[in-house]
Amino acid sequence: MAGYSKVELEALAQLITQLGECANDMRSAMTQLKDIGPKGSGYAELEQACDDFQDKWGYGIGLIADATGGITEGLSESRKVYQTLEDQIVEAFQASGKADGK
Asked: What whole-number distance in Å separates Cα of residue 72 and Cα of residue 62?
């Protein structure tokens, strides 16, 4: 059938879960890097490089994690809508089958 599309609800649920985990992992990694920084390593350049990395990437990774959270919420809502529509279609076909005496 031309133009036919199908939503894989289970695959969508897995994607939602994976995106949520990804956002949490990004935040966790940045926190761990901050907590285990090389403070007191005795190498000023290394400590400065780590601080610079945290300053530059910490903010950006936080934004990416926040955006991922927004995408996850949107996908979750979309999945609910698709599931509701699919349930309604199944009910409509079941009702029409009963009405025809099948």
From this structure: 15
- Cβ-contact 16, 79 below 8 angstroms: yes
Q: Look at residues 90, 85, 83 and name the one whose alpha carbon lies nearest to residue 98.
A: 90
Q: What is the pTM of this model?
A: 0.66
Q: Does residue 96 form part of some domain? A: no
Spatial separation of the C-alpha atoms in residues 29 and 98, rounded to whole Å: 56
The predicted-structure confidence for 29-81, as pLDDT tens digits, reads as follows: 888 777 766 677 778 888 888 788 888 888 888 899 889 989 999 999 999 99
Q: What is the count of structural domains for the chain?
A: 1
CA–CA separation, 6 vs 29, rounded Å? Answer: 36
Q: Is residue 90, in this structure, part of any structural domain at all?
A: no
- Please give the angle made by the CA atoms of 16, 19 and 23, to the nearest 5 degrees: 140
